[in-house]
Amino acid sequence: MTDRTAIRLEHVGKRFGAGPVVLDDVNLDIAEGEFVCLLGASGCGKSTLLNLIAGLDRPSAGTIHVPAEGTAVMFQESALMPWLTAARNVELALRLRGVPRAARRTQALELLDVVNLADAADKRPHELSGGMRQRVALARALAQDRPVLLMDEPFAALDAITRDLLHEELERVWRRTGRTIVFVTHNVREAARLGQRVVLLSSRPGRVAGEWRIAETSGRRIESPEVAALSIEITERLRKEIRRNAA
User: Fold this and answer.
1) In this structure, what CATH number is given to the domain that contains residue 50?
2) Which residue stretches of 115-200 are H helix?
3) How many domains is the chain built from?
4) Nearest to 179 by CA among 8, 30, 77
5) pTM (2 decimals)?
């Protein structure tokens, strides 16, 4: 890898047992600090690819290079410990990282402040909305202090307004922390709203079927004309891939 490459996938393939090939010959470089949205129809292998990058599974073919410090993963479900407060949930990640007990509370509050949730530090998950729980989960992922953040459809279960607010939060956190982010979604507008680059996977077997780079990402909103125009272009390509697979 070059000094500026955070993730490199070379001829990556994945097959589970004797089943069909899920991913085939995936080649992808992701730069340090880049925000990449991985898009595709349901079942195309997006989550499988994310799990391979995270090291939660091994590829059947090819190689994957990630930073030595590893990756942090945020899933669709917040998976917070229900008996712990928001701050304690973040502190748990700090403890697993080896942060001394005396420093954990302060760091947890700082991380909750990063996601605009410091005032909910002492609330338990059942006292928080779905969007707030996902923000706690984001703070917990940041607490792992990994250079790469992998996000598997983290906002899919949220209503449109909450999702839009969290898009703004995530963009702000990304700009503030400089993390490399790989964000999996099947929502075309979400990908066009968030990504510096959108990578489209074909339906099974999953291959890189198209890429779009966005030169200027600041100031975008879900209703922005440029987001709408890009969404139309990507959707047309996605439809072609779905039709090709169904033929």
Assistant:
1) 3.40.50.300
2) 130-143, 160-177, 188-194
3) 2
4) 30
5) 0.92
